[in-house]
Design a protein that fits this description.
This protein is of the alpha/beta class. It is 40% helix and 16% strand. Helix 1 crosses helix 2, helix 6 packs parallel to helix 7 and helix 22 packs across helix 25. It holds the Pfam family AcetylCoA_hyd_C.
Length: 632
């Protein structure tokens, strides 16, 4: 049934379910926000309505943590997010104002956004995203809804699940079984005019839906995730990972700066191979430097190309398609020729526009499909094994133990940071597929409040990837091949890619616990793992354009791109005891202030009239000078 009014559709859902709604939705952009908000407001106004929401990754505009951040974000948000309709339930959950008759359960949350939210921490469902459809069904979902794309071809209206076919396609068989047994189950779609129309498996008949909402009043901006800058550290990690890719193989990567860094280095390998090989030589990542590179990777261009198979179809993967890297086609069970299988997509506005502007040939080579198809070997296993040759499943962790366990979803105190998503599935596949490897990317250190600590630790109270699934770990200092190694060999390999400021303490801890020979020494060539060594290489090539700050493009202006690292620098140093006093007494020349005048103006600090504004001006100038100095 077709509805031209979101309000009318919401009323029908309440009537059909008797006011007991268990609503399932996909993650990210696929949520029909106007419909969800209509249902939420009806439940707020009528306590007899019970509304449970089961979903993942509820997104919102970026939030500022202070006045300087707010000054930066306000114009950016207005420009990039425009009239995007926020999710009412998300704000209520964060403000602890959800009514008792409304419950929100998520499988995956925006990274680090819910650490201080007891409601989300208590109502989170810890599950592989592959099992989200199963878990929704087990919790009694009776309405499953999402945003879809529509187009008219020769007078016929066609429909596509677009960015999020992954959960609905897997949930349908169970939902239809329950419907056949007499339960009320509704499949609801809301059309958005800007949603990219994806073909192949994502294209579905109108009969799939019980309700199709096409309300012209709701065409607000789609949610996007702008590309963030890629740091020196991330570029070196991406370089190491890119050398592990094998021509004619398979690639999965995730979202974020590390995924962008991998895509950027891979494009450089393909388009400017001589510069790429020079970088490998300078960083010691030549194919004969690490056995894993010589055996499993290389530095050649991609003549056969890669086949993409990734839970998340990222903008980086799309750019690899455009750049002629992802071009190896496989034949699916329907006889279609596909070079990219994905479960869902999310990214910057430029990504959506590129998808809308693709040629028919490009469209036909991408298949957005079941999450179970992409993330699992079960089902069509023989076909998947034929497709996924020489696979490299590249994921990120925030901590790795010295014995190879990875931590990506939860802190040691139990608080959920983000979620497992599909990471465990891909790591497990790497051990089941002939020639496949799991590659975990981790920054060797992190800095908070001016203090540097190691992300490689002796032990951690929680693990996402257990150490018996250890494989390859990449930091900015190199590649550690851990597969089939003894504990002592694993520890030795991990010590070689640690920051040298923490190597000795970690080595002594391993020896103390009898896991490393007392006479073990870290090879001399790994005893100088420090940012200064990397910076010399980085600056030389950064000036030549090989390590761009925004390798996949930017939604930020030129001035904003300079302000981002400056604000990040402030965030890392603001709580140190001397910073405020230093800002108060620092003498900054008029010439320096004039040089940064556009940056000060963008932040409203060019003409300070209050003590606070003068302090903000000083802090900004200090940060801009500090960041500029590191680029020289």
């Amino acid at each position: 049934m077709s509805y031209s009014s979101v309000a009318a559709a919401a009323e029908e859902i309440v009537r059909s379910t008797g006011g007991n709604i268990v609503l399932g939705m996909p993650l990210g952009m696929g949520k029909p926000n106007p419909l969800v908000n209509a249902l939420y407001r009806m439940a707020c106004a009528d306590s007899s309505i019970s509304l449970t929401i089961l979903t993942a990754l509820s997104l919102t505009r970026p939030r500022a943590s202070g006045e300087l951040q707010q000054r930066f974000l306000a114009p950016f948000i207005e420009r990039v997010y425009a009239d995007y309709e926020e999710l009412d339930y998300l704000h209520a959950a964060r403000a602890h104002t959800l009514p008792d008759n409304i419950c929100v359960n998520e499988f995956f949350v925006q990274p680090a956004s819910e650490l201080s939210n007891p409601y989300t921490q208590q109502n989170y469902i810890n599950s592989n995203y592959t099992h989200a459809a199963r878990d929704m069904n087990n919790r009694g979902v009776n309405v499953i809804a999402q945003t879809i794309a529509s187009r008219n071809v020769n007078g016929e209206q066609q429909f596509s699940l677009s960015c999020n076919p992954e959960v609905l396609l897997d949930a349908l068989p169970r939902l239809l079984q329950r419907r056949e047994s007499g339960e009320t189950v509704l499949v609801v779609a809301q059309i958005h005019p800007d949603m990219p129309f994806m073909e192949n498996t994502a294209e579905v008949p109108a009969a799939l839906f019980d309700m199709i909402i096409d309300d012209p009043a709701y065409s607000s901006r789609l949610i996007s995730t702008p590309n963030m800058p890629v740091s020196m550290t991330e570029h070196f990690i991406g370089l190491g990972a890119s050398a592990l890719l094998k021509d004619g193989g398979t690639l999965q990567i995730g979202i974020g700066a590390l995924g962008d860094a991998v895509a950027s280095a891979t494009l450089l390998r393909h388009t400017d191979n001589s510069s790429y090989r020079g970088l490998l030589d300078e960083t010691g990542l030549t194919p004969d430097s690490f056995s894993v590179l010589a055996a499993d990777g290389g530095a050649d261009t991609f003549e056969q190309g890669l086949y993409g198979c990734s839970e998340m179809f990222t903008y980086g993967l799309f750019r690899l398609m455009e750049g002629g890297v992802i071009k190896r086609h496989v034949t699916d069970a329907q006889g279609r020729s596909i070079c990219m299988h994905g479960g869902f997509f999310l990214g910057p506005n430029a990504f959506y526009e590129s998808l809308r502007q693709m040629s028919p040939e490009q469209h036909s080579s991408i298949d957005m499909t079941h999450i179970s198809f992409v993330n699992s070997l079960y089902g069509q296993e023989e076909l998947k094994r034929q497709h996924r040759v020489e696979a490299r499943f590249v994921n990120t962790a925030f901590t790795v133990t010295l014995m190879g366990a990875g931590v990506a979803d939860q802190l040691d105190d139990g608080r959920i940071l983000s979620g497992v998503g599909g990471q465990y599935n891909f790591v497990a596949q790497a051990h089941e597929l002939e020639g496949a490897r799991s590659v975990l990317l981790v920054r060797a250190t992190r800095e908070k409040d001016g203090k540097v600590s190691s992300n490689i630790v002796w032990n951690y109270a929680h693990t996402t990837i257990p150490r018996h699934l250890r494989d390859i770990v990449v930091t900015e200092y190199g590649v550690a091949d851990l597969r089939s190694k003894t504990d002592a060999e694993v520890i030795a390999a991990m010590l070689n890619i640690c920051d040298s400021r923490f190597q000795q303490e970690l080595m002594e801890t391993a020896k103390e616990h009898g896991k490393l020979a007392q006479d073990h020494q870290i090879p001399e060539r790994f005893q100088n793992n420090n940012p200064q060594k990397l910076r010399e290489i980085y600056l030389q090539h950064h000036r030549a354009g090989h390590f761009p700050d925004f390798p996949l493009g930017s939604d930020f202006t030129y001035v904003e791109e300079m302000l981002l690292p400056a604000l990040s620098w402030l965030g890392a140093h603001m709580k140190t005891s001397a910073i405020a006093e230093l800002a108060r007494v620092s003498v900054i020349s008029d010439a320096t202030a004039e040089h940064y005048q556009p940056h000060l103006a963008r932040m409203g600090c060019d003409k300070p009239t209050t003590i606070r504004d003068r302090l903000y001006r000083q802090l900004l100038l200090m940060a801009l000078c500090a960041v500029d100095k590191t680029e020289q």
